[in-house]
TrEMBL record, chain A:
CDD domains given in the database record: TM_PBP1_LivM_like
Name under which the protein is recorded: Branched-chain amino acid ABC transporter permease
Keywords annotated in UniProt: Cell membrane, Membrane, Transmembrane, Transmembrane helix
Location in or out of the cell: Cell membrane
Bias (Low complexity): 10-22
Lineage, top ranks: Bacteria, Bacillati, Actinomycetota, Actinomycetes, Streptosporangiales
Broad class of where this protein is predominantly found: membrane
Record's keyword annotation contains Transmembrane helix: yes
Keyword Membrane recorded: yes
Membrane protein topology class: Multi-pass membrane protein
Native source species: Nonomuraea harbinensis
Transmembrane segments: 30-47, 53-72, 79-98, 104-124, 131-149, 180-200, 231-251, 263-290, 302-319
Pfam families: BPD_transp_2
UniProtKB/TrEMBL annotation, chain B:
Alphabetical keyword list: Amino-acid transport, Cell membrane, Membrane, Transmembrane, Transmembrane helix, Transport
TM spans (from-to): 12-38, 58-82, 94-116, 136-158, 188-210, 216-233, 240-260, 266-290
Keyword Transmembrane attributed: yes
Primary localization: membrane
Superkingdom of source: Bacteria
Membrane topology: Multi-pass membrane protein
Subcellular location as annotated: Cell membrane
Organism per entry: Nonomuraea ferruginea
One Pfam short name: BPD_transp_2
The keyword Transmembrane appears for this protein: yes
Family in the record: Belongs to the binding-protein-dependent transport system permease family. LivHM subfamily.
Name of this protein: Branched-chain amino acid ABC transporter permease
Length: 341, 293
């Protein structure tokens, strides 16, 4: 028991063995982020459109995983139904663009608000439940979603879905369509990361960590459990909804079968493998969710599932901080070896 | 009225299948406090094993017995290899591990047997007989008989054997059980083995109705969850009662509530789960757990 409690509480904390002054570490984080961002801006001019599309999808997944990370990694609550919020955002955007012909940028705040409210409404009953019951309810929501979308055919287009025109790049930019979509996704992803980082560093983030690490202690210190859990659920749903909205822009098509239960489960797998409770976890998880299936599909149709399943279990045993934690550990041991040599 | 009763019979017959999977969930929950999200997939995998045996030319009932033996061994093996290292871990870890198992077993079945639909032999004759204007299929009777036999055997095991007494002791208080000399580790593995066996029965029963494919149990699982929640996760009898109630509720809602209809029936377990958890979280037959902060 004690070992595993430690594991969860360590998930969000900075890796041990980093003795530098906090100021220097923060500065280094900014430098790394800057270099990555520069590479991300440079990349679409060097890659073929298909690869640009793949990277765009990585950004979409990263935003969704960022949301799931707030809930699972930072608040310690589980969701097997985040695909439902992703779908809610995607459909909110698609319906506005298809039926009301709104400009696509206007759909983003609305999709975010819809998913946030949905998360709030579902979060109120769900957060009275603990652990596995929450997993049950969210799973049931994800399963219920597909027939529900098929049912309201006039609005959602039924099983046929809705086809939309993809956002066209403005003339001044001189970009191709895939590049423009990539930069839209990149802008949204960067904004989402800054928002999440700010959120988690604030009072809310500290309250969530307290709830995750010890509910009773948190309550004694005056953290209202149900309030913060519901809030985490709603925030996390909002990020998933934003990701869904960008998904609609990028794919230009939504149908109930784009959001099966497996999407929710894949998202959970992605964040667990990427690294619960770390800021780089969502990006690593998104790379994983995007590229493992496309690379391993050649071996066998079922290979991605086998790899995902085994990795999730393995990660829970040996590396509860996921790929992000492993990378941190590797960097630390490398540093030690260099210092010695 | 006849039509209504006919629907009830139909509901009870699907409910019996939910009940057997719910029973498997409850067995594992009692012993290890884990809700096994992979239970349905394990049942599906067992069904494939049964299919493999019959495809090799074995008579159905022999294939079933062999499958149950293999499932029992498989369940024990999974407990030993996969669950043991995370025993006593927080719920989040346990849920994630069983979800991982879910993904793995599902994909492994697809890898071995492909995702194409397979015809599963129906062990029961296709006919039906009539009682007072009601048609009762032999299929329905067969399902009832099999689930009834399984429950009877479990009852005998738990109430009238030494192993069963030991298992009940472990479920009630593992520490005390260990102190009086019961081998808790072995008992937990037995619990997983039993659950896998009971789950295999539900898979074999449902396969002729749904066709055999790797995602076959995904839909059944959520009904079994609803059944176990309704009956109470710590009550095997409750799981059976819950399964029957969920089966009837689902069928009636699909048949008589226009807004729900056959396509939104899957909302019924969601409503049941939410309703039970908000109004009576321990379920109809479960014990409310008093926790000391």
């Amino acid at each position: 028991m004690s070992e595993s409690t430690q594991v969860t509480s360590r998930a969000g904390a900075p890796p041990r063995g980093q003795a530098q002054a906090p100021g220097r570490r923060v500065r280094r984080q900014w430098i790394v982020a800057g270099v990555l961002l520069a590479a991300a801006i440079y990349a679409p001019f060097q890659l073929v459109p298909f690869h640009v599309f793949q990277l765009t999808m990585v950004l979409v997944y990263a935003v969704a995983l960022l949301g799931l990370n707030v809930l699972v990694g930072h608040a310690g609550q589980i969701s097997l139904g985040h695909g439902a919020f992703f779908a809610a955002g995607a459909y909110a955007a698609a319906i506005m663009m298809f039926h009301w012909e709104l400009p696509y940028l206007a759909t983003l705040p609305v999709a975010a608000a819809v998913a946030f409210l949905l998360g709030l409404v579902l979060g109120v009953p769900a957060m009275r439940l603990r652990g596995l019951y929450l997993a049950l309810v969210t799973l049931a929501i994800a399963i219920f979603l597909v027939p529900l979308l098929k049912r309201f055919e006039e609005v959602t287009g039924g099983s046929m879905g809705l086809s939309l025109a993809k956002p066209a790049p403005p003339a001044w930019s001189g970009l191709a369509e895939d590049q423009w979509l990539y930069f839209l996704a990149l802008a949204v992803a960067v904004a989402a990361f800054l928002l999440a980082a700010g959120l988690l560093r604030s009072r809310v983030g500290r309250a969530l960590h307290a709830v995750r690490d010890n509910e009773i202690a948190a309550e004694v210190m005056g953290v209202r459990l149900s309030y913060y859990k519901t809030l985490a659920f709603a925030w996390s749903a909002m990020f998933a909804g934003v990701a869904g909205c960008v998904y609609t822009w990028v794919i230009g098509f939504v149908s109930p079968d784009s959001f099966p239960v497996t999407l929710s489960i894949t998202l959970l797998a992605g964040i667990v493998v990427g690294g619960l409770g770390s800021l780089s976890g969502p990006v690593l998880g998104a790379l994983f969710v995007m590229f493992v299936p496309s690379l391993s599909q050649d071996i066998n149709e079922a290979a991605p599932g086998v790899i995902f399943g085994l990795l999730i279990i393995a990660v829970m045993y040996v590396a509860p901080t996921g790929l992000a934690g492993l990378a941190g550990r590797a960097a630390n041991s490398l540093k030690k070896t260099l210092r010695k040599g | 009225m006849t039509g209504f009763l006919q629907q009830v019979i139909q509901g009870l017959s699907t409910g019996a299948i939910y009940a057997s999977l719910a029973l498997a969930l409850v067995l594992i929950y009692q012993f290890t406090g884990i809700v096994n999200f992979a239970q349905g997939e394990l049942a599906m995998f067992s069904t494939y094993i049964a299919w493999q045996f019959t495809a090799a030319g074995m008579p159905f009932w022999l294939a079933l017995v062999l499958t149950l033996v293999v499932s029992f061994a498989g369940g024990m093996l999974i407990e030993r290899v996969i669950i043991r290292p995370v025993e006593g871990a927080p719920e989040l870890t346990l849920v994630i591990v069983t979800v991982g198992l879910f993904i793995f077993v599902n994909a492994a079945a697809g890898w071995i047997w492909s995702f194409l639909i397979k015809d599963f032999p129906n062990p029961f004759p296709g006919g039906a007989f009539e009682v007072g204007g009601l048609t009762v299929g032999f299929q329905t009777l067969g399902v009832f008989a099999v689930v009834g036999i399984v429950m009877g055997l479990l009852y005998l095991l738990f109430q009238h054997t030494k192993i069963g007494l030991g298992m009940r002791a472990v479920a009630t208080n593992p520490v005390s059980a260990r102190l009086v000399g019961i081998r808790v580790g072995v008992t937990l593995a037995l619990g997983w083995g039993l659950a896998a066996t009971v789950g295999a029965v539900s898979g074999v029963l449902v396969a002729p109705l749904l066709f055999l494919e790797p995602n076959m149990m995904g839909g059944v699982l959520i009904y079994a969850f609803a059944a176990a929640t309704l009956g109470g996760f710590d009550s095997p009898a409750g799981a059976v009662a819950g399964g029957l109630i969920v089966g009837v509720a689902e069928t009636l809602a699909g048949a008589y509530v226009g807004a729900i209809g056959p396509d939104l029936k899957v909302g019924v377990p969601l409503v049941i789960i939410l309703g039970v958890l908000l109004l009576r979280p321990q379920g109809l037959f479960g014990r409310a757990v008093v926790e000391r902060a």
